[in-house]
Structure formats: C-alpha cells, structure tokens
Design goal:
By secondary structure, the chain is of the alpha/beta class. The chain has one domain (5-177): Flavin prenyltransferase-like (Rossmann fold, 3-Layer(aba) Sandwich), CATH 3.40.50.1950. The chain has helices at 17-29, 41-50, 53-58, 93-100, 107-117, 133-144, 163-177; strands at residues 5-11, 33-39, 65-67, 85-91, 122-126, 148-149.
C-alpha cells in the first residue's frame, strides 16, 4: 500500500501570493500527496490584492483539506497526527516571530510548533526586505529549533522571462526542501 504524504501549506499575509498558488498547483499534481491548507486573515487579504479573482477562487480546490486558522482542535495541531512536512509560503515577519517565540494561539503557528517538536521539515519562505536585527534573530531562533529559512530569491542563472517562471522555480525549490519529489518542476544549475 502506498503511503500518502501530508504536506501543510500556510499562506500568511506577506506579499507573494503567486508563490503559494504555484506550490499548490504543483502539489495537486504530485501522486501520493495531499495538501492541508491554512490561509491566515492577512493571507486572505493579500491573495485578494495580488491575484485575479478566479485564481483566489481556485486555491481551496487545490487542497485536499482546508483548515480554519482559529481551529486549534484541527488534527494537524497534534503531534499524534502531524503533517509530514509544512511550508509557510509566503511567510510574514509576524508569522516568523510567532513561531520563533512560541505564540501558538493560531493554528498556523501551533502546527508549525508541532513540526519543530516532532522534528519534521518546516520551511519558511520569509518575504521581507530589508531586514533588521530582530528579524534576523527570529530567523536564527527558528533555524536553531530545526526550521529551514528559504527566502524566495530568484534563480537569475535560469534567465526567467516571466514572474510565473520565477514563482514556479521558487515554489519547486521550497517543496524540494520539504522533501517533495518535484524533479520535473525544479530546474537545477548545470554547466
């Protein structure tokens, strides 16, 4: 029997909604993978600002399970039913800081905390620039707890022609860090 991998996707309020849409589209096509989605209040606002209405409407249908941010009783809030990996894409500084300092009053943060305590992959695509020392300290704190900080930086060597190409490559890279088999989507450096 084939094992189904459960991948959590959190869309926070940081700019970069196209990254989340790209990741969800990739996950929807991966065999033996189900995605568990959480959209924060800020994430919903940003989706509506950055994407076309039909793209915003598509997002819940790309995921097998949509969780409410306030539902701290959701299955993914428990270590006994933890996800196999979790991605926060895009990740706001607010979300990063809440994870770094254990403010688990929302499902997205509680589920991230579970990932860290269970030693499972947690990838944060922090979307902020410039950064001050408090941001860097939060990144260091999460890294020391086992999280992976992966800012969505374009791979310029690929000479991308569109924002969609940049988003697809970034989404594939983050999914790869979470242990997903995205070899068809991920373009690697070759000389």
């Amino acid at each position: 029997m084939t094992q189904i991998r459960k991948i959590g996707i959190v869309i926070s309020g940081a700019s970069g909604s196209i990254l989340a849409l790209s990741a969800l589209r990739i996950l929807a096509d991966l065999p033996n993978t189900e995605s568990h989605l959480i959209v924060t209040e800020g994430g919903q606002r940003t989706l509506e600002l950055e994407l076309e209405p039909e793209e915003v409407s598509e997002i819940p249908y790309l995921s097998e399970k949509v969780n409410e941010e306030q539902d701290l009783a959701a299955s993914i809030a428990s270590g006994s039913n933890a996800l196999d990996a979790m991605i926060i894409l895009p990740c706001s500084i607010r979300t990063l800081s809440a994870i770094a300092y254990g403010q688990t009053d929302r499902l997205s943060i509680r589920a991230a905390d579970v990932m860290l305590k269970e030693r499972r992959p947690l990838v944060l695509a922090v979307r902020e620039s410039p950064l001050h020392s408090g941001h860097l300290q939060s990144m260091q704190q999460v890294t020391q707890m086992g999280g992976i900080i992966a800012p969505p930086v374009p791979a310029y060597y690929l000479k991308p022609q569109t924002i969609e190409e940049i988003a697809l490559q970034n989404a594939a890279r983050v999914l790869n860090l979470a242990g997903c088999n995205v070899q068809q989507q991920l373009v690697r450096w070759e000389r």
